[in-house]
Amino acid sequence: MQRILSSWFVQGMVKATSDMWLKGWDERNGGNVSLRLDAADVEPYRNEFYPQPRCVELSQPRAELAGCWFLVTGSGKFFRNVQLDPADTLVLLQITDDGMAYHIHWGLTNGGLPTSELASHFQSHAVRKAVSGDKDRVIMHCHATNLIALSFVLELDEARFTRMLWEGSTECLVVFPDGVGIVPWMVPGTDGIGSATSEQMKTHTLVLWPHHGIFGTGPTLDEAFGLIDTAEKSAEILVKVIAMGGMKQTISREELIALGERFGVTPHAGAIAL
Fold first, then answer.
1. What pLDDT score was predicted for residue 106?
2. Does residue 191 contact residue 119 with C-beta atoms inside 8 Å?
3. Which value, in Å, is the radius of gyration of the alpha carbons in the chain?
4. Does the model's pTM come out above 0.85?
5. By the 8 A CB rule, do 74 and 108 touch?
């Protein structure tokens, strides 16, 4: 008999959350991850589902995601503990056919709810599902240390912030040519910040929450993690460069253009024009 704890999606979430905690991005219960699944992914494990799944109403209807399955981190759950007890710290849920609520089918064995940022996740999932042609399946939020630090000292302009990250590490323009979207500081866990983030997700795979953290997306957990990891590495370099007195030389505009041409990507127009 197959066990859901051994499934690729639970094991993938265990690895992702463990790696994020080891990076120092997810202190205590900071951060959250959601993975959109197909019915075929969960079908082999129905024998482990709750016989009477709990139903929770959504704060915002999500008709675009009706019937979709998600594996999500739980509210108040520590990332460092996901590897120790996935059944308590994760939750498998399905949005109802009318998009008005969701059913909890597995997980949260000691009670509780999915992440308090669930509305933000679903708003961004709906956008990325549409703009990526159904490819993007992960929304990942964490408190990446150096990206947060830069949000205190760099101008919060998406073109300028993006350009700095591109110059901080050569691979950045190739990994996120669409740049970094930025929303104003807002109270987390609200529909408002979810709407602002999903608006940025229409044109960006990375969205910065100043003084708070970063949202990333991708088709797999590895892709979303790698995206954030790449941006955070550049941010770490920039933090050190700024601390050492600033840049004396950098990657030029012409060199960035050549980089984009070599790897067949179209750089963010505003950032490349600076």
1. 98
2. yes
3. 19
4. yes
5. yes
Average pLDDT, the chain: 97
Tell me, what's the pLDDT at 189?
85
How far from the centroid of its chain's Cα atoms is residue 231's Cα? 13
Cβ(165)–Cβ(234) below 8 Å: yes
Give the Cα separation of 274 and 272 in Å (integer).
6
Q: Kindly give the residue spans of alpha helices, DSSP state H, lying in 133-265.
A: 145-153, 158-168, 172-175, 191-200, 221-243, 253-263
Compute CA distances 210 → 42, 75, 150, 205, whole Å.
Answer: 36, 22, 9, 16
Taking Cα atoms as reference points, which of 28, 25, 172, 174 lies closest to residue 89?
28
Q: What is the mean pLDDT of residues 140-166?
A: 98
Contact 170, 255 (CB under 8 A): no
Identified catalytic residue from 43, 48, 57, 117: 117
Cβ contact 241:168 at 8 Å: yes
Interaxial angle between packed helices 145-153 and 221-243, expressed in degrees from 0 to 180 and rounded to the nearest 10: 50
- Place 155 in a pLDDT band, splitting at 50, 70 and 90: very high
pLDDT score of 1 more than 60: no
Where would I find the H helices in the chain? 8-22, 39-42, 86-89, 118-131, 145-153, 158-168, 172-175, 191-200, 221-243, 253-263, 269-273
pLDDT digits (tens, 9 = 90+) for 98-120: 999 999 999 999 999 999 999 99
117 is known as an active-site residue: yes
Cβ-proximal residues to 222 (8 Å cutoff; 6+ apart), any chain? 16
